[in-house]
Amino acid sequence: MSDTLTMTEQEILDQIQREVAENRVFVFMKGTPEMPRCGFSNQVVQILNHLNVEYGARDVLTDPRIREVLSGWSQWPTIPQVFVDGELIGGCDITTELFQNGELQKLVGSEAAA
Amino acid sequence: MADLDELTTMIETALPGAEVQIVDQGGGDHLFASVIAPQFAEVSLIQQHRMVYAAVQSRLDDGSIHALALKTRAPEAS
Predict the structure, then answer these.
(1) By the CB < 8 Å criterion, does A88 face chain B?
(2) Cis preceding linkage at A80, omega within 30
(3) Do A75 and B45 count as a contact with CB atoms less than 8 A apart?
(4) Residues in a beta bridge with B30
(5) pLDDT at B66
(6) Which of B46, B53, B70 is opposite residue A88, by nearest beta carbon?
(7) What is the pTM assigned to this prediction?
(8) Mean pLDDT calculated for residue range A7-33
(9) B54/A contact by beta carbon, under 8 A
(10) Which of A43, A93, A95, A104 to mutate to test the interface with B (most CBs of B within 10 A)?
């Protein structure tokens, strides 16, 4: 995602929806996959890395409006938020549970074991 | 500071037949809830969590709950 600071909130929402539509797996997180800045975001990234699945990521800390616009749209209050095939599957708790029971692997088409 | 009995009742009212257990994980406002409800059959985890959050939304909004971790599932099929 390009720099949002010069964007209107509508443009940010358009950008969020485009990113989610264009990436099979997409995560909104605090920090980056290389340098997560929250334990919950880190845990989600570790799971996705373990599954060896391609995913896009957006750091919500770069602009506080991203989180406001995202949560208003997704109706989910917390970060991280993991989207698969355009649909929100959950935050850290649900992603972890789906990984542990093997459903996440099916959703993203990964062979990796929990 | 949350009233655990009141929260249990709020969830049971929203989800009749639910088995609800709420544990204080510290400070009285960081809670863990286990909810087993017949309404959760064939419902995705995210929808299950949304249904529980919706039941206690007013207590999240007024700050008496700061964090609510959830474990939800439908009852085992008998």
Answers:
(1) yes
(2) yes
(3) no
(4) B67
(5) 84
(6) B46
(7) 0.84
(8) 97
(9) no
(10) A93
Pairing, β A56-59 against β A87-90: unpaired
DSSP secondary structure code for residue B29 in this structure = T
| Nearest residue to B55 (alpha-carbon basis) of B3, B1, B15, B5 | B15
Give the mean model confidence (pLDDT) for residues B28-45.
93
Q: CB–CB of A90 and B46 under 8 A?
A: yes
Q: Are A75 and A85 within 8 A, CB to CB?
A: no
**Nearest in space to B17 (alpha carbons), one of B58, B75, B78:** B75
Domains of chain A: 9-108 (3.40.30.10)
pLDDT in tens, A50-104: 999 999 999 999 999 999 999 999 999 889 999 999 999 999 999 999 999 999 9
Q: Which residues of A touch B44 (CB under 8 A)?
A: 89
> What is the dotted CATH code of the domain comprising B4-73?
3.30.300.90
Interface membership of B41 toward A (CB under 8 Å): no
- Predicted complex ipTM: 0.71
Containing H/E element for B32?
strand B30-36
